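Quiz preparation item.
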């Protein structure tokens, strides 16, 4: 069963620069480590159990799923959902119509030498980034997710991930089947779009298509295709609003 958002992924050209920028925005940034696929990361963990992954490449890997989005500007490129039954949920997404790989192992070595291990199921082709990739831990999850969850800016968790799509009904059909409940119709005046909203655990997923010529989703879809567009972070006692995109390195993050 899906437990909610495990983490959102922000691809950046330089991990050290990104870490400094996010620290300047009031986040507590924890070094993550290296993956054997040419990437390294830093993590921003929240009290709701989810986190932001800042990820960069320490060596070129054109076959990696986030290499191409990074060349188009990076920022928010993907999201992961936690599951307590990876095989079941992978099969459920596949049955719903998502092109998704079989589970495969991955690992990361933390700076202290501890090797983390988990198993992922990753959507393929145009479904990637619209359907989530799924994770189930082999080593304890509390070793993968930093314990430092307090932030000077008051952020406590991930509220909503907004995904730009061309075909709302197709995507909504996936999630309705997997989650076992229909979505809620939404209208976004800010985005000049209409869509469907789903909840999983403490988190919300909005899938929105442009509904007017001036929608900012139209150029996004033309440049990037259906993919994550923005995220809202829950914050306690902090001033809300869109964070400076020059500091977030292209990620549209709003405190609410």
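Solution:
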């Amino acid at each position: 069963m899906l437990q909610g958002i495990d983490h959102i992924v922000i691809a950046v050209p330089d991990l050290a620069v990104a870490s400094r920028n996010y620290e300047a925005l009031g986040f507590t940034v924890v070094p993550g480590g290296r993956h054997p696929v040419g990437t390294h990361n830093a993590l921003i963990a929240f009290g709701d159990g989810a986190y932001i992954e800042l990820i960069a490449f320490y060596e070129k890997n054109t076959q990696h799923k986030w290499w191409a989005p990074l060349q188009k500007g990076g920022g928010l490129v993907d999201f992961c959902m936690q599951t307590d039954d990876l095989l079941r949920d992978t099969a459920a997404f596949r049955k719903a119509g998502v092109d998704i790989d079989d589970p495969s192992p991955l690992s990361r070595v933390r700076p202290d030498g501890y090797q983390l291990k988990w198993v992922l199921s990753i959507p393929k082709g145009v479904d990637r980034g619209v359907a989530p990739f799924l994770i189930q831990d082999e080593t304890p999850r509390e070793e993968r997710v930093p314990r430092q969850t307090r932030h000077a800016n008051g952020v406590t968790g991930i509220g909503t991930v907004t995904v730009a799509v061309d075909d709302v009904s197709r995507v909504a059909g996936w999630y309705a089947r997997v989650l076992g409940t229909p979505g809620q119709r939404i209208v976004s005046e800010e985005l000049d779009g209409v869509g469907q909203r789903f909840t999983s655990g403490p988190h919300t997923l909005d899938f929105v298509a442009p509904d007017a010529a001036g929608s900012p989703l139209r150029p996004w879809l033309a440049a990037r295709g259906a993919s994550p567009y923005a995220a809202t972070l829950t914050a306690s006692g902090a001033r809300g609003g869109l964070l400076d995109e020059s500091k977030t390195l292209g990620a549209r993050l709003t405190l609410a």
